[in-house]
Amino acid sequence: MVRQRLSAGRLRCLLPSYYLKNPRRLVYICALFLCATFIICDRQILVRDYREELAKLGKEKEQLVQQLEDLRKFLTGKEEQTFIKLKDDHNDHIKVNMGMSYEDTDPVTRERQSKVKEAMIHAWSSYEKYAWGFDELLPQSRRGTNDFGGLGATIVDSLDTLYIMGLHDQFQKAKDWVSSSLDFNKAYDASVFETTIRVLGGLLSAYDLSGESVFLEKAKDLANRLLPAWDTPTGISYNIVNLAHGSAFNPSWTGGSSVLADIGTVQIEFIGLSQRTGNPIYMQKVENVINQLRKNFPSDGLLPIYISPVSGKPTTSMVTFGAMGDSFYEYLLKVWIQGNKTQAVRHYRDMWEQSMEGLTTLVKQSRPSSFMYIAERAGGNSLIDKMDELACFAPGMLALGSEGSAPDKALKYLNLAKELARTCYQFYQRTSTKLAGENYLFREGQDMVVGTSWNILRPETVESLMYLWRITGDKTYRDWGWDIFQAFETHCRIESGYVGLRDVNTGAKDDKMQTFFLAETLKYLYLLFSPSDVIPLDQWVFNTEAHPTRIIARTEVAHDVEQQSYQKATGTVGSSKNRRFGNVDVMRGSRSEKVRH
Q1: Which DSSP string do the residues of 40-59 spell out, in sequence order?
Q2: How many C-beta neighbours within 10 Å does residue 119 have?
Q3: Active-site residue list
Q4: Are 97 and 472 contacting, i.e. CB atoms less than 8 angstroms apart?
Q5: Residue 487: is its pLDDT beyond 70?
Q6: Which long-range contacts (CB under 8 A, 24 or more apart) does 55-61 make?
Q7: DSSP for residue 587
Q8: Which of 22, 456, 489, 514 is deepest in the core (most CB within 10 A)?
Q9: For 325-406, where are the alpha helices, taking DSSP H only?
Q10: Residues 345-386: pLDDT tens digits?
Q11: Cβ distance 526 to 164 under 8 Å?
């Protein structure tokens, strides 16, 4: 009975009347109910947030796993790569990835580099299909043409680009053609300048990159056929020589004079050949030209574009950093770099600095936008407000020359380089196709207007962007280069190759794929989106056709010591050794005639 009463007492708490009779109990139970409800709801919210956070972390994990997988593939060679062996001052060897390095794992940069490489594949494949063995491809006609004597100019000019981009099969096919089919015994009146920078420079670069002796042997054969051009009263070369007969002369349109850029843009190639063969004759010929020019070198360092091969003196007063003048100044700097900046080549640097002081007297600013440009000088102090796209090599040259200068000069050169690069980029941006015309006129209140309206796939602006990116690390230059590349893709790419434009405003196309588009434009764009240890600027020097050759220290002593230095640096004695594709040992340490219209 007692137990039943106790049980009934306990069960009363389950009846509503138990609480209604006592308000205090009702308040307690309501409060308890609210607390329980809050705890349960808060728990549910925490569970939901926890699940959302887990989902978010899961997605981030998947992204990280994918990135790690991409990196693993890259490092294990599942993506096509090329490697260079570098030898430092202590002869230690390291392997540098020529495809990408850790500094450029940015997917945007990698994608851009890949797109440029694909453009090279398209250009080369089109040439292979429609013009193999010819100098150049006519993409719209789908046939080849021989404007360089049938020397397979596109093949030779493209060798190092193929090698650097890791296009193994294409390089091997090109090498086989050089070995079996490249013949210089042709009764062809060759431009000494064009043949030197494109063909001789291409062969030397291919030799330095691959170590294949066939390239050096062909280079010697060609250089020997060019040597008669220097048989003049002063040793200042003629601009044209017949490759079979050795007869040399200057074109009639120069009035018998030699073109400044032609005689001053062969030194890198001929000096390099002497260093690699031990034969000093090539270097002696081209350095004598510089010595002759020094006799009449003006105080402002600005030589006119026509020089007499008889007297060694200028025959005109026209000064320009565009066509027929440009690459003379480029080579003053680069021969100094090629010789590893030793005392033996110091006079080249001194001449260059003197010329850069003269260049500043040609720099003007447009109105209203204050774009800096390099004017031309017709005589005295009379300036012509015109600048060739060819002169857009100058920003890169100035940036390159800023290294090795006194601090005040270095800042001056680099700031001018940046301003001129901004102008050259505007050459592209201010047309409807976003591609630059051949030259621009500057008019008060109008800034710049297109002068000659064609675009033939020239490289000078992207060349300067590559140097400025390497030296400053400013990604703006990569973005500008990408804009230019996209314009080429939009307006110049067709099914059978790449063509230039007859008019950058209308977009009307021409019918030629210039060799320098493969040799220079695409190479510089590829390097723009590559890490700076791909063909590093402290170990290689580019000729004016973008062919890199090793920097080898010049000395004041007998030439055979230099040749021994080259052999020691490359690990070769006598003929070069063969190397695996994509591996080379390196020692640490004008465009003006391109399609004259």
Answers
A1: HHHHHHHHHHHHHHHHHHHH
A2: 22
A3: 194, 326, 438, 460
A4: no
A5: yes
A6: none
A7: B
A8: 514
A9: 326-338, 346-360, 394-402
A10: 999 999 999 999 999 999 999 999 999 999 999 977 899 999
A11: yes
Residue 94: phi and psi, rounded to 5, are -130, 160
Give the rounded distance of the alpha carbon of 218 from its chain centre: 26
Beta strands in 436-571 (DSSP E): 439-443, 447-450, 493-494, 497-498, 540-542, 548-550
Which region among 22-26, 278-282, 569-573 has the lowest average model confidence (pLDDT)?
569-573
% the chain with pLDDT above 70: 79
CA angle 143, 167, 158 (to 5 degrees): 50
Of 218, 127, 210, nearest to 497 (Cα)?
127
Listed in sequence order, the residues at least 6 apart from 518 whose beta carbon sits closer than 8 Å to its beta carbon are 120, 123, 124, 127, 154, 157, 158, 161
pTM here? 0.80
- Whole-angstrom distance, CA of residue 168 vs CA of residue 77: 14
Q: How far apart are the first and last CA of the chain?
A: 125
501-525 pLDDT, tens digit each: 999 999 999 999 999 999 999 999 9
Q: What is the DSSP string of 288-336?
A: HHHHHHHHT--TT----SEE-TTT-SBS---B-SSTTTHHHHHHHHHHH
pLDDT in tens, 309-340: 999 999 999 999 999 999 999 999 999 999 99
CB 455 within 8 A of CB 85: no
**Is 248 in contact with 241 (CB distance < 8 Å)?**
yes
